[in-house]
Amino acid sequence: MSIQKGSTFDCPECDVTAPSASVPYDALGYAVCPVCSHATVPTGDDA
Ligand SMILES: [Zn+2]
Q1: Threshold 0.70, pTM exceeds
Q2: Which is the most buried residue in 6, 23, 33, 34, by most CB within 10 A?
Q3: pLDDT interval class at 5 (50, 70, 90)
Q4: Neighbours of 31 (CB within 10 A)
Q5: How far is the CA of 26 from the centre of ligand 1 (A)?
């Protein structure tokens, strides 16, 4: 309940935070970090 992942992308690799709407997605629908290109697997919260 402390972390809300609804509209913000948080990269676990480089710790960058960006609005989800501005983050690109790969072919599998994973958010791709605009800084380090790390693909983040969604937790299934809002699939
Ligand atoms: Zn990153």
Answers
A1: no
A2: 33
A3: low
A4: 20
A5: 14
